[in-house]
């Protein structure tokens, strides 16, 4: 078994920061928040206007959940008040409460359980956190058996808003679901199919996730690949596909924005956006620690501590460690070895420091790092029965027949940081976000997944037996020896000026990426070596505004001009005699600009229901692929920009007096020149190529609901339907070896793609959760279950019977007990993932045999979590 030793000692920067901050935390329990007093005078004006006015005097903004303040009038008062005292006075006898979403934003909503709110108010008296809730002093409701769904805020429009008022199809993942699906050591793919229209897969193990929204994605496995789904982590775009695999831990929420998001988030967002927001530093002392142990010696530990270092400086340190032992044996003749694949040691840390010298200015400093030592995706040679997508007889999840298993390795090292500066005046907010990311990685795998049994001159030895490979072996590696990404955004936004509000800004991006591609002989010696470099510069200007046409109708629109330029070079350093003597550098440059826009309208149909429509345009910049490591006439592959136009209609409703929420939308899109990855039609030099298909159309719907049947029983349900079709009679690509292909074949032996749905695009996605809790003793005993479903998908543009995944249903279960010990909240639980032990083909390789990739098996485990 390979040794996977802890690597914190490799990063002395993190250790020193953690130790110094930990020393400062020892005094933060005594740190108080000194609230200033302001001269307040309120007349008998509408309550919502009074709240907005008072909030501005303290440098804050107000977010209303539904029309909770409609028809209410403020009670006149005057005098010197602190912020909380003023809010208490305004909300007295209104049946409303206020909640701090963050240091700058206060939500106003209906009051809920009296006992819970009183406890929160007392325990958080030292200072406002990101999740504090306060009821008006004399209007709290008595506890009852009636349940209420949680109000949700999002930042889909770069402002903190109520989810129900945003004219975009947005899903939020947080709370029980996020904890349940991530606790067993899973990587970012745990989100796949847990949200309508979202699919995530990878052929690089725990790195390089590929995202698909509404069927739109990119299968390109090159390390300079671009994707039509952007990922933003703490306000910084993660452009490299390796950066997108950063672990998800200590996050406040995950937002998934469906449809083009080009106006506010820029290029490479035609399908949508996945946005992660970390928990921010707090002035009061808080934190947590959790530890989980599961099958296969899977260990997951994470924790965070947050608090004030001074009256104006607070900090938060978050740590994660996930490990698993190798558990897959190889039984290739002459290469037998036990426990050689499948393990990993994945560690990450985030350190945040927040400086708030006054109510108008804040500076948030973020440093994050990751160190992964793991196994690449495990390929299994000749594992698929020809003419079907069934596994062959004798297939075993924990056995492979690789002759290079002991050389398989994957390492990823990420370091990054950001500085977010915010300056708030009465009418405007000014924001600057500076980000820097750097990654190094190396991944080597036995891609054919087996051992060679025949040659080109005598192919008779290959009969398709499990684990065998004909003619030639494929062991390759890709690495990033050097990489840097720098981003800068400046933004100005108005603060509730009246009927019209707006924001505008400038964005700059630059990336320098080195790539190594290596091929190996059967004995592991190097036979081919290719070096690539890609430099990307991009910039954009944007503006967006919303106008209240009437009390019930709001119109929002925006424009963004983007410019993208790439300079690319590839050069062979080593090749075989069959590749000829081509060692000259190959160059490619691309440059393009585009205008993205959106226009939407939101209509308040009733107090609890909003209707909206949205038109939008987005684009993905040109892409270059240079997998020219072999062949005597290699060619670079270049794809032009893709353009999407989309329209959607939706409704967002709160029902049953806040006990239920249902959001629904229908959409239609057309894409021109969509970039797709195909089996190469080149005679020489590449296994894959980029193609632009003339037109792609898609339509479907998404629906999500949450229902608090009682305060003890809560359920959620999500479903999506996506119908996509490629319309291009001219694009022709190569077929695959040993496949039963259904595509039409032309006179050159190439196959067409016209009429096909997009690859990796399930028509149906469904998800369901249920939580039941019951007071037992001094705590709560609860049961939680979550299920996800995805219909059949093809793995590529080739419509082959062998290269597809059957409909897949996966479930998880969790049984836990919550209780308090002094000031600590404790949770102990047992859980299971993939509890039906479903074995599914989730990927395939057609280079020289029907190699397959299998899903993760059933896991049983237990964990404990302590919060303070």
TrEMBL record:
Source species: Alteromonas profundi
Protein's membrane topology: Multi-pass membrane protein
Region (Disordered): 113-148
Keyword Signal part of the UniProt annotation: yes
Gene3D superfamilies, alphabetized: 3.55.50.30, TonB-dependent receptor, beta-barrel domain
Biased composition (Basic and acidic residues): 113-122
GO CC, alphabetical: cell outer membrane
Major subcellular site: membrane
Subcellular location(s) of the protein: Cell outer membrane
InterPro entries associated with the record: Beta-barrel_TonB, Beta-barrel_TonB_sf, Plug_dom, Secretin/TonB_short_N, TonB-dep_rcpt-like
Signal peptide: 1-29
Taxonomy, superkingdom: Bacteria
Pfam family, one: TonB_dep_Rec_b-barrel
GO biological process, one term: iron ion transport
Limits of the Secretin/TonB short N-terminal domain: 61-111
Family: Belongs to the TonB-dependent receptor family.
Protein name per the record: TonB-dependent receptor
Record keywords, A-Z: Cell outer membrane, Ion transport, Iron, Iron transport, Membrane, Receptor, Signal, TonB box, Transmembrane, Transmembrane beta strand, Transport
Bias-annotated ranges (Polar residues): 123-145
